[in-house]
Amino acid sequence: MAKRNTEANRHPYEAHRERQRRRILEAAERLFDERGMDRATMAEITAASGVRASTVYQYFSNKDAIVWEILEGVFAEAAARIKAAMEGAETALGKITALVDVMAEDLARRRATVRFMAQFDAMYAREWPAERLIAIEARISKGGFAQFRKLIRDGVADGSLRSDLDADVTMHAVMNALIGAQRRLAMLGDRVEKQYGKPVDALFREASRVILLGLRAEKKDGKRRKWKA
Amino acid sequence: MAKRNTEANRHPYEAHRERQRRRILEAAERLFDERGMDRATMAEITAASGVRASTVYQYFSNKDAIVWEILEGVFAEAAARIKAAMEGAETALGKITALVDVMAEDLARRRATVRFMAQFDAMYAREWPAERLIAIEARISKGGFAQFRKLIRDGVADGSLRSDLDADVTMHAVMNALIGAQRRLAMLGDRVEKQYGKPVDALFREASRVILLGLRAEKKDGKRRKWKA
Amino acid sequence: MAKRNTEANRHPYEAHRERQRRRILEAAERLFDERGMDRATMAEITAASGVRASTVYQYFSNKDAIVWEILEGVFAEAAARIKAAMEGAETALGKITALVDVMAEDLARRRATVRFMAQFDAMYAREWPAERLIAIEARISKGGFAQFRKLIRDGVADGSLRSDLDADVTMHAVMNALIGAQRRLAMLGDRVEKQYGKPVDALFREASRVILLGLRAEKKDGKRRKWKA
Amino acid sequence: MAKRNTEANRHPYEAHRERQRRRILEAAERLFDERGMDRATMAEITAASGVRASTVYQYFSNKDAIVWEILEGVFAEAAARIKAAMEGAETALGKITALVDVMAEDLARRRATVRFMAQFDAMYAREWPAERLIAIEARISKGGFAQFRKLIRDGVADGSLRSDLDADVTMHAVMNALIGAQRRLAMLGDRVEKQYGKPVDALFREASRVILLGLRAEKKDGKRRKWKA
DNA sequence: AATGAATGAGACTTCATTCAT
DNA sequence: GATGAATGAAGTCTCATTCAT
Q: What is the DSSP letter of D51?
């Protein structure tokens, strides 16, 4: 009897469980985007995922848990994508460019996900225990921001970045501007596109271009330094 | 609003009404910031403003109306401040710099107001009839963004800005990045300051510096062009 | 306008409010007795009192608040009745007898109220902050148990009670037995009466008689001391 | 129950079942005491007993069944203990004294069990079909209360008890007071001990002493009758 | 025999808003 | 003009229990 509980037999259950989790998570993610993280109700998530309300609580202890779970997924995916992109680049500037590229792509093709992050920031900014976010970040992207700080330092060292940058401050300032721009554009989305006729990721790319121009070391000899990785 | 203020003085009645309105608006603004726009309840606003819940409805038809009213005030004030700052500058780059300065100041000294805008964007982004915002914008800052577009064009023309900028796109891209950065920093506020030991407006200024460096025309002759207005 | 809010005009509202409170309280008290304090739902109380659920919350912040409010009323009434009864008696034994009489009467004529106390004890015994009960007790019956302790001491002194009693211990022991008996009989109520054909207060009186016999000083000279006050 | 235990040993199956039953019962009993009979959830009982929720239903048809089963066990044990104690006594008063002793001991050493009975009374008083309890009582302590009635009669006859007692009434009155006192003290438990510095069983013993003094025949000749068995 | 999954049936509460005075 | 009272409409979550495997 105890034996029956081995992995072999647990598997079918686990698979089912995982499928249900995903269903709920996906329904929630969609609804958070369509209706807003705060406005989407458990009842809606429930209905959209095909399970009954009480069942959801067997998978997630409450609405917040769903939010955090999605967040973790989003983080993990993004971290992986960024890591992969940056590995291909050589100079610090190249790496930063790669990062910016991923962000632009996300804006173009995973806009809902970026909007999710934007909403998360707005909703939880006031109340999340900062530690919790940091814990997730730590678990997922070892190094996290520290890594980027190093990037600036490396860039200054390898001559690809301006020499008058303060690694720590610049790093945070720039990252913040990029993230702020990306999330804002994701939120505005269609509205901007309809009004100005440009896809939002084009706007993000242009902003990034200006920022990267601002970071890049000035040419000393008339020859423009290639800054695309 | 301006209109209301004039009339108000014609009749003691109106003066009283105006005072009440302000009280409610101020209480709401404070509570939106302290508790969040969505979490702040009418009951709280009511209690904080010293009027009874039902009375509020004699001044504002519903909670949203309060939000929009505050928004309008915030807009008007900001527009005035920006306009004043920009008038003092001569070159296009100078004007942009002045604008950025106002934004940094707001972040430092009116952070709650910036947070209000951030919340507004996040909450209403999904549902506001874009026209409504545009109407406000139009009423207040005649020209609005159009003005800024001209700025870039002027800057390219007067040689203070890079020649390879597309006035329309760059303008939106940069403004968006600046606003995104400013609002994000306002929201993160204390959290960032505690973690990195820098006041958030310093981070904003650094981001702006990089952006302006990226916009600025490259020196052609070794002499660095003065870009502060 | 401010003037309109004076007592004169507030009165009609206050009266109404008080009437509503009572209605809710009475409905709750009845339901707590009929269905049990834990099983009675807000919806039932609501329905029984003729107000809608949300209205109840304008009078009481939650179910517990209703319980405590009833409790306070029950306490106050009982304290008043006990005080009045005891004032008429002279010897300590007489006072105790008077107290016991009130308890028996309550059992006969306010059985639901005694049952309320029984339920309260059982439900809240585990979790009430003892201080809260003590606070109520203090507010209502100044002296509270202390008074009774004195009673035993006086009784020993005036010769109406056995000389080998330890005022403090005996007092608590006896009061506890009386209260325990009274509440248990209230709970068992009909069941006992149907089974044994005696009204429960008769059983309580008999138990009290035995207890009082046990407290009373033994006659020294063959003459039985009158112990009824 | 006794029956079950015998059969149990016939088949390893049954032995296992019996072990599971016990586990569940023990977990339930503990939780009923810790968290309250109503507040303890099936999920908690389940978790504490190491079985899964659905499995519990293979042993007990519902939560109530668990309560009744525990009750039966408690009853049986208590009856056995009381019977043993009373067998050693000779006079009626002696037997009553022995009974009281057992009750005091239970209060001191099996307080959780007494609390269980107290909770049972409070919760089920309203709804149990009296017959059910009576059936248990009958099955376990043959004679039940009838026995005690006889005790009083015997006591009056053998001169150890007052002659003016009505066997039936007094018996129920006194038993009720004792049980009421015992359960109340069990419920109050720590609270009383902290406040008055006496172990609750001391208070129970004092109450019993007074009651027994009240029951005991008065000395006729100055020699005090020994009333301890 | 054991159990994972699912769920019906509520429970309590909150809140923006209306309306009669 | 001010306000007390009332409430509809939700919303989140809990729990005992059933059922298929």
A: S
Question: B21 and B110 share a domain?
Answer: no
For residue range D54-101, what is the model confidence (pLDDT) as tens digits?
999 999 999 999 999 999 999 889 888 988 988 888 888 888 889 999
Domain count, chain B: 2
Q: Among positive and negative, which fits the CA dihedral C203, C209, C215, C220?
A: negative
Cβ D148 vs Cβ D161: under 8 Å: no
Is D102 near chain C, with CB under 8 Å? no
Return d(Cα D229, Cα D216) in angstroms, integer: 13
CA C102 from centre of chain: 10
Select the more confidently predicted residue: A13 or B209.
Answer: B209
Domain boundary among C10, C26, C61: C61
Structure tokens at B180: 């995104």
Helix D145-158 × helix D92-109 angle, to 10°? 130
Per-residue CA distances from D219 to C79, D17, D161, D226 (Å): 38, 58, 10, 10
Contact assessment for residue D162 and residue D149, using Cβ atoms and an 8 Å cutoff? no
Q: Which residues of D touch C169 (CB under 8 A)?
A: 198, 202-203, 206
Smallest CA–C1' separation from C55: which nucleotide?
F6
Last residue of a domain, one of A31, A61, A91: A61
Q: Could you give the CA distance from residue D89 to residue D79 in angstroms, rounded to a whole number?
A: 16
Whole-angstrom Cα distance, residue D116 to residue D122?
10
Note the pTM of the prediction, 2 decimals. 0.86
Q: Give the H/E segment covering residue C41.
A: none
The CATH number of residue D41's host domain is 1.10.10.60
Region at C159 (left for phi over 0; alpha for psi -120 to 50; beta for the rest): left
CA distance D48 to D28: 8
Which amino acid appears at position A94 of this protein? G
Are residues A128 and A48 part of one domain?
no
CB-CB contact of B116 with B52 (8 Å): no
Q: How far is CA D151 from the centre of its chain?
A: 19
Q: Is the pLDDT of residue C229 over 50?
A: no
Residues B223 and B184 in one domain: yes
Residues C159 and C154: their CA atoms lie apart, in Å, by 8
Q: Please check whether residues A22 and A116 belong to one and the same domain.
A: no
Between chain C and chain D, how many beta carbons pairs sit less than 8 Å apart? Answer: 149
**Residue D11, domain extent:** 1-61
Same domain, B80 and B57: no
Residue at token pair 């958070």: A32
Whether A27 and A76 share a structural domain: no
Q: Sign of the C-alpha dihedral, residues D160, D166, D168, D172? A: negative
- pLDDT of residue A216 exceeding 50: yes
Rounded, the Å distance between the CA of A3 and C1' of F21 is 16
For B123, which DSSP code?
A: H
The H-assigned helical ranges of chain C are: 7-35, 42-49, 53-59, 63-87, 92-109, 111-124, 130-140, 145-158, 167-196, 200-215
DSSP letters for A58-73: HH-SSHHHHHHHHHHH
Q: In the beta sheet, which residues pair with residue B116?
A: none
Q: Does B221 touch chain A (CB under 8 A)?
A: no
Which residue's CA shows the smallest distance to C1' of F12? A42
Share of chain B above pLDDT 90, in %: 46
Q: How many residues are given for chain D? A: 229
For C207-216, write each residue's pLDDT tens digit: 999 999 999 8
